[in-house]
From TrEMBL:
It comes from the Bacteria. The keyword Transferase applies. GO terms for biological process: methylation. Gene3D superfamilies: Vaccinia Virus protein VP39 (3.40.50.150). GO terms for molecular function: O-methyltransferase activity; S-adenosylmethionine-dependent methyltransferase activity. Pfam families: Methyltransf_3. This is O-methyltransferase. InterPro entries: Cation-dep_OMT, SAM-dependent_MTases_sf, SAM_O-MeTrfase.
Length: 220
C-alpha cells in the first residue's frame, strides 16, 4: 500500500539502493574516481548501481560469448566480466582510440582480464573478424545516433534466447519532453531506437528506469 506522507528525492533513493546492494569493487571505485578527475564526461561510465545490475544479469544468464559496443573506460566491461564464468569471452569495441591508455591501466590489473578482448575500431569493421558463433549477450552503449543501426547489425548474430541490453534509453529525460522531436540528433536517435524496439515482435522487452534508462531485450 502506498502512502503520500513522504516522497523521497531521486538522490536519496539511489543512495538507499546503493547502501543495500553489493559494494563497488576497489578497482572500479578507483576507476570511477579517476574518471571524474581526468575525463570530460565522467557521467558516461555505467557507475556503481548499474554496474552491479550488469554483473547480476550475467550471473543469472551465464553467457559465454558477449559483445559490448562502446567500451569507454571499461567500467561496464569489467562488471560484465565479473558476472561471467571463467571460460566466457567478451569482445568490447570502442571507436575512440584515445580511451585506450585509460582502459588499459585498469584492464591490466583486473582479475578477469583474460576474458576481455578489446578492439579499437568501428564495430562494422570488427564484427566480420569475430567469427560466426552467435552471441549470448550484447551490450550497446555508444553513439546514440546509431543505436538503430547497431541493433540491426547485431540482431542476426544473437542466439534465440539471448539478450541485448541498451543503455541511456531515457536520455536524461529528454525522451518525454514536448519538443523532443525537435531537439538534438542524439535524442532523436534514442527515440527512434525506443520506437523500433517497442514495435519489434521478434523480441520481448522492458525499459527499466535504472540510472539513465536500461532496455532489456530478449530475442525469441
Amino acid at each position: 500500500m502506498l502512502t503520500d506522507t513522504y516522497v523521497p528525492i531521486a538522490e536519496e533513493i539511489e543512495a538507499y539502493a546503493l547502501d543495500h546492494s553489493d559494494t563497488e569493487p576497489p578497482l572500479l571505485a578507483r576507476l570511477n574516481r579517476d574518471a571524474h578527475v581526468k575525463l570530460l564526461r565522467p557521467r558516461m561510465i555505467a557507475g556503481h548501481l548499474q554496474g552491479r545490475a550488469l554483473k547480476m544479469c550475467c550471473r543469472m544468464m551465464r553467457p559465454k560469448r558477449l559483445l559490448e559496443i562502446g567500451t569507454y573506460t571499461g567500467y561496464a566491461t569489467f562488471c560484465l566480466a565479473e558476472g561471467t564464468d571463467p571460460d566466457a569471452e567478451i569482445h568490447t569495441v570502442e571507436i575512440n582510440d584515445e580511451m585506450e591508455p585509460f582502459f588499459r591501466t585498469y584492464w591490466q590489473e583486473h582479475p578477469d582480464r583474460m576474458k576481455i578482448h578489446p578492439h579499437w575500431d568501428d564495430i562494422r569493421r570488427v564484427l566480420p573478424q569475430l567469427g560466426p558463433e552467435p552471441f549470448d549477450l550484447v551490450y550497446i552503449d555508444a553513439d546514440k545516433r546509431d543505436y538503430c543501426a547497431y541493433y540491426d547489425l547485431v540482431f542476426p548474430l544473437v542466439r534465440p534466447g539471448g539478450l541485448i541490453l541498451a543503455d541511456n534509453t531515457l536520455w536524461s529525460g529528454k525522451v518525454v519532453k514536448e519538443d523532443a522531436t525537435h531537439t538534438d540528433t542524439q535524442t532523436r536517435g534514442i527515440m527512434a531506437f525506443n520506437e523500433l524496439i517497442r514495435n519489434d515482435n521478434r523480441v520481448e522487452k522492458v525499459l527499466l528506469p535504472l540510472r539513465d534508462g536500461l532496455t532489456v531485450i530478449w530475442k525469441k
